[in-house]
Design brief:
Distance between the termini of chain A: 36 Å
Shape of chain A: globular
Helix content of chain A: 40-55%
Protein name (chains A, B): HTH-type transcriptional repressor AseR
Keywords (chains A, B): DNA-binding, Transcription, Transcription regulation
Radius of gyration of chain A: 14 Å
Number of domains of chain A: 1
Order of helices and strands of chain A: HHEHHEEHH
GO molecular function, one term (chains A, B): DNA binding
Number of strands of chain A: 3
Number of helices of chain A: 6
Oligomer: homodimer
InterPro entries (chains A, B): ArsR-like_HTH, HTH_ArsR_DNA-bd_dom, HTH_MetalResp_TranReg, WH-like_DNA-bd_sf, WH_DNA-bd_sf
Largest interface: A-B, 28 and 29 residues
Pfam families (chains A, B): HTH_5
CATH architecture of chain A: Orthogonal Bundle
Chain lengths: 114, 114
DNA sequence: TAAGTATATAACTATTTGCTTATGAATGTA
DNA sequence: TACATTCATAAGCAAATAGTTATATACTTA
């Protein structure tokens, strides 16, 4: 059990971000795999701007980091974030979302950029 | 570290409820003290219906339970809830809100009903 | 029983949120 | 250079949210 003391306001901000199915699932996925935007678009069946906007909120808080690789921008969880242990604790209790990535591979979409 | 596996949808619902400063603070307080509605109204400086509506959302999910004691209705955390360990894990990392109750006592408001 | 206190619910409102489409900027390639 | 692809941003919209005031319900007490 962690013993971090978290500020209430910070905690509220983080929980609000995680309290969205798309973002929570994205975080769970990105906890294990770097993802480019187009993969996430495929997975969640929403528009590309919708994904970008979710990523922006996560990035604005520093919860994820981006890294350009040529044409693509890959996102991953920022494990150096002050509250990463807190977030990790939550993500660890969620079921693996590896099936979603597997579905992409089978469908051939993931290969397109990774 | 807990190893519970939580459904994504359930987790989202809970995090959404906790992602509100009033509700998160209420939960932290109720984790240690039974509270009647009027106390919470005093603490949060919002209208009584606002508090009742927050409590209803928490109660609808079973996260808190109510108990009438005469004229008052006391709310407390439902420690038998399937996901209570998950919630407790979050609450434990928050700073104590005991000062808010102490302020009530000094102000004489808490005594009125407890 | 009548009046007072505590709480819940209903109705309304302003703000926030998550999505969409349209468009711009950055990179890769013919 | 021209064109295609990837991603970000802007603008607009519908739904959700958190608050308010008004009112109903339940209990206590004079």
């Amino acid at each position: 059990m962690l013993k971090t003391t978290m500020k209430i306001d910070d905690t509220v901000t983080i929980l609000k971000l995680l309290g969205d199915k798309t973002r929570l699932t994205m975080m769970k996925i990105m906890d294990h795999y770097d993802c480019c935007v187009c993969e996430l678009v495929e997975i969640f069946k929403v528009s590309q701007p919708a994904i970008s906007q979710h990523l922006r909120k996560l990035r604005d808080l520093g919860l994820v980091k981006e890294e350009r690789r040529g044409q693509w921008i890959f996102y991953s969880i920022n494990k150096t974030h002050e509250y990463y242990p807190f977030i990790e604790q939550i993500l660890q209790q969620l079921p693996s979302q590896a099936d979603k990535l597997k579905a992409l591979e089978e469908q051939g979409t993931r290969i397109s950029c990774c």
